[in-house]
Amino acid sequence: MVKTEDLIDAQGVAGLLQLSHANSVSTYLRRYPDMPRPVLDLGTGRPRLWLRPQVLRWLRARRPDTVHTGVER
Q1: pLDDT tens per residue, range 7-59
Q2: Shortest CA distance to 48 belongs to which of 72, 14, 73?
Q3: Whole-number Å distance between alpha carbons of 2 and 19
Q4: First to last CA, the chain
Q5: pTM here?
Q6: Which one of 1, 39, 55, 72 has the fewest beta carbons within 10 angstroms of its own beta carbon?
Q7: What is the share, in percent, of the chain residues with pLDDT greater than 90?
């Protein structure tokens, strides 16, 4: 079951990854095949949502020295 408080949009993902723009998340999706994919993607120009715990796990695996950036469930 998905907890709604765990859902984040591209802006939230960009914040966790310390990216300047939400559009950079698309670049990361192309560049890193192991990056978590959105759990909800309604198509071009429509919302995409990720699970925060998945993004945090991926980030920690890539950058173990990353400061704790949220509560992982």
Answers
A1: 999 999 999 999 999 999 999 999 999 999 999 999 888 899 999 999 999 99
A2: 14
A3: 25
A4: 12
A5: 0.83
A6: 1
A7: 74
Residues 31/71, Cβ–Cβ less than 8 Å: no
Distances (CA, A) of 67 to 2, 35, 60: 25, 19, 9
Q: Distances in Å between the alpha carbon of 49 and those of 19, 30, 42, 64? A: 17, 16, 9, 24
Q: Tell me how many degrees the CA angle 32-52-29 measures, rounded to the nearest 5.
A: 20
Tokens 């709604």 — which residue? 4
- Residue 36 neighbours by CB under 8 Å, 6+ apart: 50, 51, 54, 55, 57, 58
- Compute the distance between CA of residue 51 and CA of residue 5 in angstroms, rounded to an integer: 9
Q: How far, in Å, CA of 24 to CA of 51, rounded?
A: 18
